[in-house]
Amino acid sequence: MLYQETKKYDLTGFRRGSEAGAPQSVAQSAFVKEFVQMTSNMYRLGWDERNGGNLSYLLKEEEVAQYLDPDCVIRKISLGFRVPELAGKFFLVTGTQKYFRNMESDPETNTGIIRISADGSEGELLWGFRDGGKPTSELPAHLMSHIARLSVDPDNRVVLHSHPTNILAMNFVHKLDEKAFTRTLWKMCTECIVVFPEGVGILPWMLCGTESIGEATAQKMKSFRVVIWGMHGVYGAGKTFDEAFGLVETVEKAAQIYMLTAHLQQINTIEDRQMRELAEFFGVKYRKDFLED
Ligand code: 2HA
Ligand code: ZN
After folding, report:
1. What is the 3-state secondary structure (H, E, C) of 129-188?
2. Mutate which of 47, 54, 165, 212 for ligand 1 pocket (most atoms within 8 A of beta carbon)
3. Most buried of the four, 126, 167, 194, 249, by CB within 10 Å?
4. What distance in Å separates the CA atoms of residue 210 and residue 222, rounded to the nearest whole number?
5. Which tens digit of pLDDT belongs to each residue from 69-88?
6. Cα distances (angstroms) measured from residue 36 to each of 154, 226, 255
7. Atom of ligand 1 nearest to the CA of 162
């Protein structure tokens, strides 16, 4: 679609700056800045080596329209699966084979904004993936998780995937059972049961980058905001970057305490009755069946 000088978007689809007449840069938007900052933090924490990890953020149309003409599609990217539930929704996502380490210096190559096509089979690229790139290989798990989280929390906007070191380490030495794993994590830091009272969902090792792992993750996401991919990493979801990141960093902290103490003689412990007391005092709806008597 072509736009005249007088229209609110310039010929490349960027919205014209209101005063200076210069197009406002998407890379300067608060949503790209916050997104990129989060990937950089995760990289610096050592959670996202090489191209490990991916992130998706559901954008509001009015947010996007401040910077881009939503009708100016750069190219269409076949998803390889269908998500009609998300038709017309906008997502800022990390690119496949892209490194979290490089997000900050070049967000326009390493990330992109897509709108899900009306039939749910394509991502309409509106910005980014400047080198011809595509969204993360874990897009099925991201989009299906968004659908699952939105069904229980209409304000959910963030889905993240990462390889936090201690969560991963714990996967090799602890039983991969939701009750046992959650209870161990809750016992590692007083506030854990308050931060993730629903516990953590766990999938066995599965082939990543597939629709099957996407569907399995989404199934878990209906009842958990944190889902562990056995011997691979973790998924986290939330209304905000703070919520999603805060959840995963709390689980990672608990896993770290576990890894620092599991081989030592434990002489003190947070009892189940104390965790119950905490959950009740803070009024959170917790998985009572994940505690023992
Ligand atoms: O895209 O982390 O699970 C890199 C990954 C795949
Ligand atoms: Zn991964």
Report:
1. CCCCCCECCCHHHHHHHHHHHHHHCCCCCEEEEECCHHHHHHHHHCCCCHHHHHHHHHHH
2. 54
3. 167
4. 19
5. 998 999 999 999 999 999 99
6. 24, 21, 25
7. 2
pTM of the full structure = 0.94
Write out pLDDT tens, residues 17-38: 544 444 579 999 999 999 999 9
Of 162, 24, 12, 160, the closest CA to residue 93 belongs to 160
Instruction: At 87, list the tokens.
Output: 């038709």
| Structure tokens, 41 | 């933090």
Q: Which residue out of 103, 136, 228 has the highest number of ligand 1 atoms within 8 Å of its CB and is therefore the one to mutate?
A: 136
Which ligand has the shortest distance to the CA of 141? 1
Residues flanking ion ligand 2, Cβ below 5 Å: 233
CB-based contact 87:6 (threshold 8 Å)? no
Q: What is the pLDDT of residues 186-225, one digit of tens each?
A: 999 999 999 999 999 999 999 999 999 999 999 999 999 9
Q: Which atom of ligand 1 is nearest to the CA of 161?
A: 2
Cβ(137) – ligand 1 distance below 6 Å: yes
Identity at 156, one-letter amino acid code: N
Query: Distance between alpha carbon 175 and the CA centroid of its chain, in Å?
Result: 25
Rg of the chain taking only CA atoms, in angstroms: 21
> Are 202 and 235 contacting, i.e. CB atoms less than 8 angstroms apart?
no
Per the residue annotation, which of 122, 124, 138, 243 is the catalytic one? Answer: 138
Instruction: Ligand 1, residue 94: give the atom nearest the CA.
Output: 1
Phi and psi at 230, nearest 5°, equal -45, 125
Q: Residue 9: beta bridge partners?
A: 15
Q: Read off the pLDDT band of 293 (50, 70, 90).
A: confident
Q: Is the distance from CB of 18 to CB of 9 less than 8 angstroms?
A: no
- Answer whether 54 contacts ligand 1 (Cβ < 6 A): yes
- Catalytic, 191? Answer no
